[in-house]
Specification:
The complex is a heterodimer. By secondary structure, chain A is of the alpha+beta class. Chain A has 4 helices and 9 strands. Chain B contains 5 helices and 5 strands. Chain B has helices spanning about 10-25, 40-45, 65-70, 90-100, 110-120, and strands at about 5-10, 30-35, 50-55, 80-85, 105. The chains are: A alpha+beta, B alpha/beta. The interface of A and B includes residues 107, 118 and 127 of A.
Amino acid sequence: MFDHKTTLSSRGTAQLDPEVAETWRQAAEAIMEDMFFEPLADTPGVIEVPPPGAIFCRAEYSGTHSGVMALAAEGPVARSLASNFLGLEEADPTEEQQAATLCELTNIFCGCLLSQLHPDGRFRIGSPYISNAAAAGQGPWMRIALDRGILAISLLPETDV
Amino acid sequence: MSSRLMIVDDSPVMRSFIRRVVQISGFPIQEIHEATDGLDALEQLQRSPADLVLTDINMPRMDGEELIRAIKTDSRLCDIPIIVVSTDATQHRVESLLHLGARGYLAKPFPPERLSELLEGLLPQRIEVKNV
């Protein structure tokens, strides 16, 4: 199966292998629509840096492949995702609920992507945790546009971390 | 006839999501119990068995695989159907857990109706089906 390595374009910008990028896009669409009831507002694209001011979450994985899954969510996106996931129709989600939802979302993205990129692999995903921007991981990031703002994800194998 | 269901997951928001999907699906569930890991689940089940267990795999203290082994080797609990709900959809993981005795495997992400489909046949007939 293909690796999820990044390449550099002639302009030096980070890019994802097109096949890997398509796997990420399909995962993002399924996860957002099936479990968070949020259709994508636009076709996901690759960016080099996550949105400024985002809330970061990170999970390390190990096994036949090792690395870091990172997620960055703008504040309104974190609130909207938590509200949808928990079925909160009127009350705003607490910061604790938002953090827990982002951690679960990171876990789902990580497991989903690893299972698709390496279906014969064996992994253990560590408990996701809220992190600061510097510790969240490097790019490239996939930019996922939602109604309330931007969500970005990054999956870096250990050799790139 | 109503059922007792146990949800085992170390993520409180995932437990809440599954609980909501089950409740909205219209199955006549009498009680839904929650456990934060396999050990917590096993202790609760030994005090009061459930009719169905939905469990995550990757959890602290006792993971889902160990929980399935423990349930299947306990003569009071071994007939409880178990459905695994996990992000790990790798082939060896799915095959090994089904081989251990899990009745179903639900890989995340999943639409709510997929969980309802898996519960069909394991729980009493639904009373009413509503959309999430």
